Amino acid sequence: MRLVGMLDSPFVRRVAIAFDCLGIPFVHEPVSVFTTFEAFQRINPVVKAPTLACDDGEVMMDSSLILQFVEMTRTGERAVRLRAQPAPPEAHSTRRGSPAWRDR
After folding, report:
1. Could you tell me which CATH number the domain at 2-74 has?
2. Dist CA 94 CA 101 (whole Å)
3. Where do the structural domains in the chain lie, given as residue ranges?
4. 87: which strand partners?
5. Bridge partners of residue 27, in order along the sequence
6. Which of 41, 50, 59, 83 could form a disulfide with 12 if both were Cys (CB 3.0 to 4.6 A apart)?
7. Residues 13-61: pLDDT tens digits?
8. What is the predicted pLDDT for the residue at 103?
9. By C-alpha distance, which of 4, 71, 15 is closest to 43?
């Protein structure tokens, strides 16, 4: 698999770090959507980073989609939580069962 995009993008870094943590082998291709637009367009006509070019020729973009795809195909389950779940309202209170705003 080839991860295409510059590591100065937080979305490309997100995928690269997740792949490294999960032990998923990949080759990073530092192709810029700005300075090498035509080269990027040959890989992904939409020219969006990050782009994952799979060994079977499939090309996908969007960091969340890439991570979900790789987790499900490589591990069979969600290995990395992509979004933190918000805490329930009672977790924000200073007294048990009482919302924090009522304590003021």
Report:
1. 3.40.30.10
2. 9
3. 2-74
4. none
5. 2
6. 50
7. 999 999 998 889 999 999 999 999 999 999 999 999 999 999 999 999 9
8. 47
9. 4
Output the six-digit token pair for 85: 């779940």
HEC readout, 23-73: CCCCEEECCCCCCCHHHHHHHCCCCCCCEEECCCCCEEECHHHHHHHHHHH
Provide the terminal-to-terminal Cα distance of the chain, rounded to the nearest Å: 55
Q: Which two tokens stand for residue 93?
A: 């209170």
Q: Determine which of 42-51, 79-88, 91-100 has the lowest per-residue pLDDT on average.
A: 91-100
Q: What are phi and psi of 3, to 5 degrees?
A: -100, 115
Sheet containing 59-61: order of strands: 27-29, 2-4, 51-53, 59-61
